[in-house]
Design goal:
alpha/beta; Rossmann fold; 13% strand
């Protein structure tokens, strides 16, 4: 099984690129949302640590945003509870998909949380700053403060770019990007079959 890790800044289009591979994708952001909506144990732990902010189940995003806005340290508390649950879900996903040729890991903190393995193929998604800002502002819970906190949490982009085997320029139309990823996927499969 080939594991592809997608790297890039917030709003660079990692999830969009991940989908274009047409393979099973583990999307950490979707998993986190699932955990907030369905994991009672996570709620109990968060309520215990942040009783001023976490009021009811399912966990609501505005409550988490308030917690992080009031104190940046709260992001660490939330992460320490949520990340192990997401990690466990990733292991279950990989186990279920073990017969797939390729799986894509769309995990914003892939490197930071040491979720990548030596044989993973890392792809860095780059995009113009104006495009990134445009995409982020369209998000439902857009909050500049939270964005700054999350960005601080990500390994410096230059380091991520250096770690990546491929760089994908995500500044083109959907059709061009589809073609680009199709070619890249073929290349990865060819390289693996010869190595």
């Amino acid at each position: 099984m080939i594991r592809i890790g997608i790297l890039g800044s917030i709003g660079s289009g990692k999830s969009f690129i991940s989908k274009l591979f047409n393979c099973p994708v583990f999307n950490a952001d979707k998993e986190v949302n699932y955990v907030y909506k369905n994991n009672k144990n996570c709620f109990i732990k968060l309520k215990k640590k942040l009783p001023k902010f976490i009021k009811s189940f399912p966990i609501r995003k505005p409550e988490l945003i308030n917690a992080i806005s009031s104190n940046r340290k709260n992001l660490k508390i939330i992460s320490s509870i949520v990340h192990p649950i997401v990690r466990k879900r990733m292991i279950e996903f990989l186990d279920k998909k073990r017969n797939s040729k390729i799986v894509v890991l769309d995990i914003p903190l892939l490197i930071e949380n040491k979720l990548n393995k030596k044989g993973d193929i890392l792809i860095f998604v780059k995009a113009n700053n104006s495009k990134i800002l445009e995409r982020i502002k369209k998000r439902k819970n857009f909050n500049k403060e939270i964005l700054i906190s999350l960005k601080r949490n990500q390994t410096k982009l230059l380091r991520k770019r250096k770690l990546a085997k491929y760089v994908v320029d995500n500044n083109f139309s959907v059709n061009i990007m589809k073609r680009k990823i199709k070619i890249l996927k073929k290349r990865i499969l060819n390289e693996r079959s010869y190595s």
